[in-house]
């Protein structure tokens, strides 16, 4: 099937500053795609170029197969949900939502029907006559979303739309947003620097760094098999063990980490002996016990720090000279306190190796 | 510990303030008081009180015609100044236009040029282009004077406007003109209204420019001036009092409206 959105070698420079660097990206219809990356990596710029508010320095942008690189925003069938919502302050909720419909030339009756339908979708029927400043943050958010959805765009663009909300409401809106996306079957292109948000909602996550795509994939792949140190660090908490390859053992590879021999999944690489690699080990993959585990990687260490986090407890375990592994345990499972000895272990296949290079340029 | 001495600056300031208010209000109060005097001379003491002067003013055809003429000129001035002022303000905030500081400085110049100089130069200008003195010339002169005030008020409001409101409108299918009409203009609304009222008051009040550019038909200030030259009479006081009360009411009402709109 033809992708709805295609970035074809798109570059955007501001003076000497490269905001987006040779971006190639295809997005399938009906998917919830998230652009994830640190501040200043070019997420908004990419979105604004797709919306028609910035002109790429070079490259092409295609929408449903049509080249729209030079088409003004009002002639593109995409709509944006802005970070601060940008609701028209002098129009009530219904008028805000109707704005795009009126400009499409729909008759009053269809406009009215569509507005009620959308208000119902987010349970705001009773607020149709309120002005934006008479709404709560969450309600404004919903109105902005419905206003952008109203004209039935090919793609809905969302630039950090949840960042102005408090943590609780944000989680609620994440779920609601995903539900609306599934219900409407629209393609959503969502921008965030919050990896948790990205993991919660996305079908596909595009991790960006320095204006380039670092890695692209579904959430579990990105989390479980990060392709670079940057991605491993950016998504979730992680232990990165810089190790030297000793040799392959089936799907696994044996490595030397600080004089300790460990095994890890090859993660699609074919490591050669003597090569330096990083082992990615998620805290929740590590098990702690008082006695030596019978199989898998195991190391004896000492608890340096024990922090209660509510539904889990995090332990920082010192193994060998200065190296520390961060782990997560259930509060009841481990009785040892800071200073006590403990065994840490993990199944080799839960750890994966990634090349030893920092964020490539 | 507070002493009388340490309070001295405060007391002095308060005294100066009240003296100033007194100085400000006394002439106005005197003028109003005289308009109710039942005698032909503007002087104390006021023996008998009357409303006759007001009755006379309101039946004075000359006065009513001058009022109408002034209002007509004010309306035309306001319309022209608003269109020009908003347009200039939009130019100044627009991206990618060079020399915005210069545009701003030039637009504001007429507000600081002395009225006399501006009047003379305008007079020379219209005679150079063979424009007769009269209504059109007056409107031209008043407009030049009023534009800076509209520019400043519109600019202040435009600068506080979230940049992506217009983006949002464009995104939803509006071309730049529709976005201006349906989003920018309503957003400017309250500030613009305040600016327009100010234009009206400026125009009605303007004497110097009108004097240099006007024809035979007198505007309100010209009429009052002519009457004063014919000798003071409580009728003039009544006229001035009426003008004062109406303009003050309009000004206060406009201020109230803009304030209410701003807090929303
Ligand atoms: N109008 C502009 N003029 C100059 N530089 C710009 C402009 N807009 C963005 N940039 C630069 O381009 C880079 C990418 O900016 P962009 O807004 O796309 O980042 P972002 O990923 O959205 O970041 P954030 O998470 O902080 O919103 C940044 O380094 C920024 O400084
Ligand atoms: Mg951004």
From TrEMBL, chain A:
Pfam families cross-referenced by the UniProt entry: ABC_tran, TOBE_2
Ranges where the ABC transporter domain occurs: 5-235
PANTHER family for this protein: SPERMIDINE/PUTRESCINE IMPORT ATP-BINDING PROTEIN POTA (PTHR42781), SPERMIDINE_PUTRESCINE IMPORT ATP-BINDING PROTEIN POTA (PTHR42781:SF4)
GO terms under cellular component: ATP-binding cassette (ABC) transporter complex
Gene name linked to the record: potA
Keyword Membrane assigned: yes
Entry annotated with the keyword Nucleotide-binding: yes
GO molecular function annotation: ABC-type polyamine transporter activity; ATP binding; ATP hydrolysis activity
Alphabetical GO biological process terms: quaternary ammonium group transport
Protein name per Swiss-Prot or TrEMBL: Spermidine/putrescine import ATP-binding protein PotA
PROSITE patterns: ABC_TRANSPORTER_2 (PS50893)
Family matches, as Gene3D superfamilies: 2.40.50.100, P-loop containing nucleotide triphosphate hydrolases
EC assignment: 7.6.2.11
Subunit organization: The complex is composed of two ATP-binding proteins (PotA), two transmembrane proteins (PotB and PotC) and a solute-binding protein (PotD).
InterPro entries cross-referenced by the UniProt entry: AAA+_ATPase, ABC_SmlMolc_Importer, ABC_transporter-like_ATP-bd, Mo/tungstate-bd_C_term_dom, P-loop_NTPase, PotA-like, Transp-assoc_OB_typ2
Keywords for the protein's UniProt record, in alphabetical order: ATP-binding, Cell membrane, Membrane, Nucleotide-binding, Translocase, Transport
Enzyme class (EC, first level): translocase
Catalytic activity: ATP + H2O + polyamine-[polyamine-binding protein]Side 1 = ADP + phosphate + polyamineSide 2 + [polyamine-binding protein]Side 1
Function comment: Part of the ABC transporter complex PotABCD involved in spermidine/putrescine import. Responsible for energy coupling to the transport system.
Record family assignment: Belongs to the ABC transporter superfamily. Spermidine/putrescine importer (TC 3.A.1.11.1) family.
Source organism: Oryzicola mucosus
Taxonomic path: Bacteria, Pseudomonadati, Pseudomonadota, Alphaproteobacteria, Hyphomicrobiales
Top-level taxon of origin: Bacteria
Automatic annotation (TrEMBL), chain B:
InterPro entries (alphabetical): Bact_Polyamine_Transport (IPR051789), MetI-like (IPR000515), MetI-like_sf (IPR035906)
Transmembrane recorded as keyword: yes
Keywords, in A-Z order: Cell membrane, Membrane, Transmembrane, Transmembrane helix, Transport
Coiled-coil ranges (or none): none
GO cellular component term of the entry, any: plasma membrane
Subcellular location, principal: membrane
Membrane-crossing residue ranges in chain numbering: 12-34, 68-94, 101-126, 138-158, 179-204, 236-254
UniProt similarity note: Belongs to the binding-protein-dependent transport system permease family. CysTW subfamily.
Classification via PANTHER family: PUTRESCINE TRANSPORT SYSTEM PERMEASE PROTEIN POTI
This protein's name: ABC transporter permease
Organism listed in the record: Oryzicola mucosus
């Amino acid at each position: 099937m033809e992708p709805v959105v295609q970035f074809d070698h798109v570059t955007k420079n501001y003076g000497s500053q490269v905001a987006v660097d040779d971006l190639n990206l295809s997005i399938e219809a009906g998917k919830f795609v998230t652009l994830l990356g640190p501040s200043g990596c070019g997420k908004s710029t990419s979105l604004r170029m797709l919306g028609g508010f910035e002109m790429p320095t070079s490259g092409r942008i295609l929408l449903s197969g049509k080249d729209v690189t030079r088409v003004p925003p009002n002639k593109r069938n995409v709509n944006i949900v802005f970070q601060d919502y940008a609701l028209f302050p002098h129009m009530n909720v219904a008028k805000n939502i109707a704005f795009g419909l009126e400009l499409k030339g729909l008759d009053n009756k269809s406009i009215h029907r569509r507005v009620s339908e959308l208000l119902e979708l987010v349970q705001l029927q009773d607020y149709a006559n309120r002005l934006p400043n008479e709404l709560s943050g969450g309600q404004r958010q919903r109105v902005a979303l419905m206003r952008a959805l109203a004209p039935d765009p090919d793609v809905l663009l969302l630039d950090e739309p949840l960042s102005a909300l408090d943590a609780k409401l944000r989680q609620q809106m994440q779920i609601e947003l995903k539900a609306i996306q599934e219900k409407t079957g629209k393609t959503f292109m969502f921008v965030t620097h919050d990896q948790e948000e990205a993991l919660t909602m996305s079908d596909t996550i595009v991790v960006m760094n320095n204006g380039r795509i670092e890695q692209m994939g579904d959430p579990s792949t990105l989390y479980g098999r990060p392709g670079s140190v940057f991605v491993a660090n950016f998504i979730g908490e992680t232990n990165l063990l810089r190790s030297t390859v000793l040799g392959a053992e089936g799907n696994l590879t044996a490595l030397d980490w600080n004089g300790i021999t460990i095994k890890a999944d090859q993660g699609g690489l074919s490591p050669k002996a003597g090569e330096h690699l990083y082992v990615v080990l998620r805290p929740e993959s590590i098990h702690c016990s008082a006695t030596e585990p019978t199989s898998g990687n195991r190391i004896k260490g000492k608890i340096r720090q024990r922090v209660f986090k509510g539904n889990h407890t995090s332990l920082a375990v010192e193994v060998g000279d200065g190296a520390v592994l961060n782990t997560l345990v259930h509060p009841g499972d481990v009785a040892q306190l800071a200073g006590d000895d403990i065994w840490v272990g993990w199944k080799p296949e839960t750890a994966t190796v990634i090349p030893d290079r920092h964020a490539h340029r | 510990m507070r002493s009388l001495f340490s309070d001295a600056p405060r007391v002095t300031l308060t005294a100066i303030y009240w003296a100033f208010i007194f100085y400000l209000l006394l002439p106005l109060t005197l003028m109003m008081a005289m308009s109710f005097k039942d005698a032909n001379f503007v002087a104390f003491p006021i023996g008998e009180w009357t409303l006759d002067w007001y009755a006379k003013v309101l039946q004075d055809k000359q006065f009513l015609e001058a009022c109408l003429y002034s209002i007509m000129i004010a309306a035309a001035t306001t319309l022209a100044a608003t269109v020009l002022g908003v347009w200039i303000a939009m130019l100044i905030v627009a991206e990618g236009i060079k020399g915005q500081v210069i545009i701003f400085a030039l637009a504001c110049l007429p507000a600081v040029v002395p009225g006399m100089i501006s009047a003379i130069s305008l007079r020379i200008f219209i005679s150079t282009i063979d424009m007769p003195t009269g209504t059109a010339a007056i409107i031209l002169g008043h407009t030049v004077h009023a534009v800076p005030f509209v520019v400043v008020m519109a600019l202040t409001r435009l600068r506080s406007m979230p940049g992506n409101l217009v983006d949002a409108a464009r995104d939803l299918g509006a071309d730049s003109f529709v976005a201006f009409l349906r989003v920018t203009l309503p957003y400017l609304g309250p500030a613009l209204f305040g600016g327009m009222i100010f234009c009206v008051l400026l125009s009605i009040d303007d004497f110097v420019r009108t004097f240099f550019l006007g024809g035979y038909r007198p505007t309100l200030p010209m009429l009052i001036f002519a009457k004063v030259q014919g000798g003071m009479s409580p009728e003039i006081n009544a006229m001035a009092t009426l003008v004062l009360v109406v303009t003050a009411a309009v000004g206060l009402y406009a201020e109230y409206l803009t304030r209410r709109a701003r807090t929303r």
